[in-house]
Amino acid sequence: MWSPPPSPLQLRRPPPPQSPPPIPRRHRTRLIPIAATGGGASQDPLTAISRLLWGRALPPSNLVLAVRHGWTSAWGLLMRQLAPSDPTTGAFTRTPSRFPSVVGSPSQRLHLYVGLPCPWAHRALLARALLGLDRQIPLSVAVPGEDGAWCFTPESPDKLYGKGKLREVYASRSGGFEGRASVPLLWDAERREVVCNESIEIAKFFCGLAAGDGDGDGGDGGLDLWPPELREEIDQWYSFIYPSVNNGVYRCGFAQSQEAYNVAASELFSALDRLEDHLSGSRYLCGDKLTLADVCLFTTLIRFDLVYNSLFRCTRRKLVEYPSLHAYTRDIYQMPKVADTCDMDAIMDGYFGTLFPLNPGGIQPLVPASCDREALLEPHGREALSSASAADNGSRQLEATSASN
């Protein structure tokens, strides 16, 4: 029986080699940033690691909570050192001056140390300028260092001793020094001793020098900021503006509890409302005469919209929203020598650049338009306030203020 011939032998070729499976897209996208960091790309390593761990999503909640807790604890520690507070309420408590009053009779070789950002030092600097004591009392200007301590630079040196830090000046006194090296500092160069580092007392001492009290030669400013007949009234105004306004802005900015902030902010703006009402009929706090009370109020007001409104959370109203208070500030700013004591750039840098716990990024906002020199030189129109109505209104307002306290 016939059968078909056998078919030729079929050789089977081996299958071509299989290429490895492609890397899933989600892994490839996570590896790209890491590779980029080694290739000179602009992405920083921390960003690359975060992309590897959680992609483009928000960080895990546990990490957020841990960082928040750590930052809050560190912030509290820094604030307790920078701005001591009441442990029960969180309210800021200012450390008393180490040398609060002038004791004895200083020599005639006096030297004043100030810092331009500081409102307390500004009081002494402004009194020195208004009273014409520039030549009688030499001046050195300290600047905030990176650690917040007052120091000197080649551009702003210690003109008396050439020290690098203000603390070194304090420490050169015979008894040494421990504590905060603060400004203003009135120094007796002959005795190598602190005369005083309390701003209001330094200003009063300058008033005595300008009047020719003691061994001084007097000043050439032609002003009496501390006249005997107004001293009681000046003290009453000062006892009102210091806790609520001068220190009030710091009580807002350095409050370590919501309750402490609420109390401080309420007192601050209540005081500003009272001052606005009073100054609507009085050119200055004590009538038509500029006094130390005005000097002390001015150094806070000139900084209000510049730094306190935003950095210290004094946000209910800006100074420019108080017509009388803002015109009053411009009135004093336009007096001879006053503008020269107001360095807005130094103030901005001193607060936003130095107070790390309040502004950890160190970013400085734009200067408000109301704080530009041109705006501060706009006519204030306060010459029209009569002395008679000012005195009457001042007495009534002061009595009402004293009664409310």
TrEMBL record:
Name the UniProt record assigns to this protein: GST C-terminal domain-containing protein
Comp. bias regions, Polar residues: 386-405
Positions of region (Disordered): 1-26, 383-405
Alphabetical list of Gene3D superfamilies matching this protein: 1.20.1050.10, Glutaredoxin
PROSITE patterns assigned: GST_CTER (PS50405)
Ranges where the GST C-terminal domain occurs: 227-352
Organism: Leersia perrieri
GO cellular component, as recorded: cytoplasm
PANTHER family for the chain: GLUTATHIONYL-HYDROQUINONE REDUCTASE, OS02G0814800 PROTEIN
